[in-house]
Amino acid sequence: MNPLQEQVLALKRERNAVILAHNYQSAEIQEVADYVGDSLGLAYQARATEADVILFCGVHFMAETAKLVNPEKTVLIPDMDAGCSLADSCPAGDLRTYLERNPGLYVVAYINCTAEVKALSDVICTSGNAARIVARVPSEREILFVPDQNLGEWVRQTTGRPMRLWEGNCYVHVEFTHASITKIREAYPDAPVVAHPECTRAVRLLADEVCSTEKMIAFCRESPAEAFIIVTESGMLHRLRRELPEKTFIPGPTELCACADCRFMKMNTLDKMIRALETLEPRIELPTALAERARLPLDRMLEWSAN
Ligand code: 13P
Ligand code: SF4
Fold first, then answer.
1. What pLDDT score was predicted for residue 228?
2. Is the dihedral of CA 149, 152, 156, 162 positive or negative?
3. Which pLDDT value is given to residue 258?
4. Which residues of 1-18 are buried (b: 16+ CB within 10 A; e: fewer)?
5. What are the φ and ψ backbone dihedral angles of 254, each rounded to 5 degrees?
6. What does the alpha-carbon distance between residue 96 and residue 243 come to, in Å, rounded to a whole number?
7. 170 in ligand 1 pocket by Cβ < 6 Å?
8. 3-class SS of residue 284
9. pLDDT per position as a tens digit, 177-227
10. Is pLDDT of 257 > 80?
11. In which band, very low, low, confident or very high, does the pLDDT at 305 lie, cut at 50, 70 and 90?
């Protein structure tokens, strides 16, 4: 532990806080977290915690989700500007207009969206449970899947359920290309390719496994292979190397480099965590009416996902 990490841990104890971190956070943040995981695991952890304060090291929609599932807690995010290009690709006003023009749609929203978009949705899903959630939607209802067209297309393909797709995407995952992944596969022919479903179809076609960040760990643990090509944000490599030190993880390259960093995820730093725990700011606050409406599809997801 370095001195800044020790300071974070001391403040955490003083505040009776819990530190939740997404798999894409930097190594030094993952090392001080009480729990590191994917969006689904983080939502369950946020709901279950008995700490007074949740310091959420991830992006804004994730911290907002923590507040929705546990409204009594103080929820802090180290940097309020840690947004998400995918959430930005579905503004609530545009979705509202679309739904007014196309009444009767059943909206399945990927958790990477704002509370306003959640409030317009029927059920939420994550990359870890999307197929399971879509399978529970009443069969007579036509589905609109927002905001990620790549994940939506993957769910449509795996479930066989027709769905309209919102045309949003993640700026990090669309940087991996068929050519860049083909090249690395040729260099490591024995290494299975493990890709996140936010990648384009051209990349998913080359993958041996397509799954959420948390499921990547289970897949690599259970596979007899010794080396894997990981096609997602760079923070995941740290998590995998920590969990499975005996295996080798090769970053899937984009067209330009092997440095698929999400600039939003990487806005969080130890310094900002210290400031947040000292000042109890920046804090996630939501208007009550919005929070109550947005919580409905989220609770539905947590219930459908557990049963
Ligand atoms: P996971 O739910 O798989 O952790 O993914 C979240 C995310 O932001 C992917 O870019
Ligand atoms: Fe959003 Fe993409 Fe960053 Fe995930 S990696 S938080 S989807 S911008």
1. 98
2. negative
3. 64
4. eeeebebbeebbeebebb
5. -90, -175
6. 42
7. yes
8. coil
9. 999 999 999 999 999 999 999 999 999 999 999 999 989 999 999 999 999
10. no
11. confident
How many Å from the N-terminal Cα to the C-terminal Cα in the chain?
Answer: 40
Instruction: Provide mean pLDDT across the span 132-137.
Output: 96
Helices (H), 53-142: 60-69, 85-88, 92-101, 115-119, 130-135
What pairs with residue 110 in β-bridges?
A: 125
Closest CA to ligand 2's atom 1: 84
| Choice from 125, 171, 232 to test ligand 2 binding pocket (greatest atom count within 8 A of CB) | 171
Sign of CA dihedral 143, 144, 148, 149: positive
Closest Cα to atom 1, ligand 1: which residue?
38
Does residue 282 have a cis bond before it (omega within 30 degrees)? yes
pLDDT in tens, 56-74: 999 999 999 999 999 999 9
Per-residue pLDDT, averaged over 144-157, amounts to 97
Ligand 2 surroundings by CB, under 6 angstroms: 59, 84-86, 112, 170-172, 198, 233, 262, 264-265
Residue 14 Cα to ligand 2 middle (Å)? 32
- The answer, yes or no, to whether any atom of ligand 1 lies below 6 A from the CB of 234, is no
Among protein residues, the one whose CA lies closest to atom 2 of ligand 2: 170
Q: Ligand 1 atom closest to Cα of 211?
A: 3
Q: Is 74 in the pocket of ligand 1 (CB under 6 A)?
A: no
Taking CA atoms, 159 is separated from 93, 139, 144, 154, 162, in Å, by 29, 12, 14, 9, 9
